[in-house]
Each structure stands twice: as structure tokens, then as C-alpha cells.
Amino acid sequence: MTTATRDARFWDRTARKYATDPIADMAGYERSRERTRELLSATNQVLEIGCGTGTTALSLAPSVARIVATDVSSEMIAIAREKAAAAGCGNVDFQVAPAEAAPGHPGGFDAVLAFNVLHLLPDRAAVLAHIREALKPGGILVSKTTCLSEMNPLIRLAVPVARLVGKAPHVAFFTGAELEADIARAGFRITERARHGSGKKDPRIFIVATAP
After folding, report:
1. Residues whose CB falls within 8 Å of the CB of residue 18, separated by 6 or more in sequence, listed in order
2. Phi/psi at 79 (nearest 5 deg)?
3. From residue 209, how far is each of 17, 28, 81, 150 by CA, in Å?
4. Nearest CA among 85, 76, 161, 71 for reference residue 117
5. Are 94 and 125 in contact (CB under 8 A)?
6. Cβ pair 36, 113 in contact under 8 A
7. Which domains does the chain have, with CATH numbers?
């Protein structure tokens, strides 16, 4: 079984619980969402990878022309579609797809959103290359990513054990600086970096990067 298949099954199992769990730092989430909204325009075609149950896509939908929102978990997408139907939202297209093979033709999107997903990818470089290909010239990547190497060192021990017993998906450990280097190697120019968390130390880095 591939890592992607194992992870899809993990998220399928946990999707309903995930959908009901409160956002741990709502103020930090709202700061990131509002900054993202400011970066988008009413004519934008947007791709979101790793959309989960669609909360962010649905909240940004009124600000753009269309969002294609994807996730590897079919159960996550099912929940997102339920939420879209309940909200009467017609400009978000939720699709099951891995991050490295998201739908759309090259140069089809003005912006790609990647929130809380880059640290979950087995091949981050391949996904970043795909994102660059999906963007129009001058399009933007907006991401917010947990940098696990900046967290308590005990997490390095706990996560592999949890993964072994099926209680965690694949995760990658890196710092914010290392993630920035990965994004730059993919050909992007980083134009903004921030930490929007409410606590004294926030391991989640918010990055805006422009495609050539």
C-alpha cells in the first residue's frame, strides 16, 4: 500500500470527527483567511489543494469567480459537498485528487491555496512543481504550514509511533526557513511571510509566493 493510499484511508476514517473539531486558534485562522481574501479578486480562478472539509474554500468563495478545491480523502470531499449544498454555494467545485495531480490545465489558475497540507505530503517538491505549472504567469501561491521541526522535540518521537499504529498520517519535519528554500527552488519568488498565531510562538508560517 502506498503512502498516499494509507493517508487517504486515515483521513477517510477521521473525516467526520475532524469536521466537528473546533479550530484550535480561531483568531490566527481568521487572520490568515482575511489576508488571503485581500490577495484575491472577484475575477480569480483559484485552486485549493488539501481542502479538507471545505471550510476555507467556502468562506473565500464569495470573493472569487471560482474555486476548484481538492483533497485526497473522498470522505472529506463528501462532507465539503454537503456543506456547499447547505450553504447554496455554487462556485466551488470539490474534487477528490492528490495534491500532485490536481485537476485543471497548465496556467489555468490565478492563485493556488495550500493550507495545513505541505507538511503532510510525501513528495513536496513534486507538488510545488505542479502548483507552479498550474498557475498563470505572475499567479500566487498562498500557504500556511506547520513547521514541525520548530515544535517540541518530543513530537519527533511521538509522531512515528502514532503513524505505526495508524493514529497519524505521513508528516515531514522541516523549519520555516527550509520550507522557504523549497518554495524558492521550485521557481517562486517569496513576497510575504508572517506568523498569524495568537500565542507567543507560532510554528505555522504563512507564505505568499509569486510564480514567474
Report:
1. 11, 52, 53, 76
2. -65, -40
3. 33, 20, 29, 21
4. 71
5. no
6. yes
7. 3-210 (3.40.50.150)
Q: How far is CA 139 from CA 12, 105, 199, in A?
A: 32, 14, 31
Length of the chain: 212
What percent of the residues of the chain are helix, what percent strand, and what percent coil, each to the nearest 5?
A: 45, 25, 30
Residue whose entry in the numeric block shows the C-alpha cell 485549493? 48
The owner of cell 490568515 is 32
210: its cell numbers: 509569486
Tens digit of each residue's pLDDT, the chain (212 residues): 688 888 999 999 999 999 999 999 999 999 999 999 999 999 999 999 999 999 999 999 999 999 999 999 999 999 999 999 999 999 999 999 999 887 878 899 999 999 999 999 999 999 999 999 999 999 999 999 999 999 988 877 787 777 777 778 889 999 999 999 999 999 999 999 999 999 889 999 999 999 99
Strand duo 92-96 + 109-115: pairing: unpaired
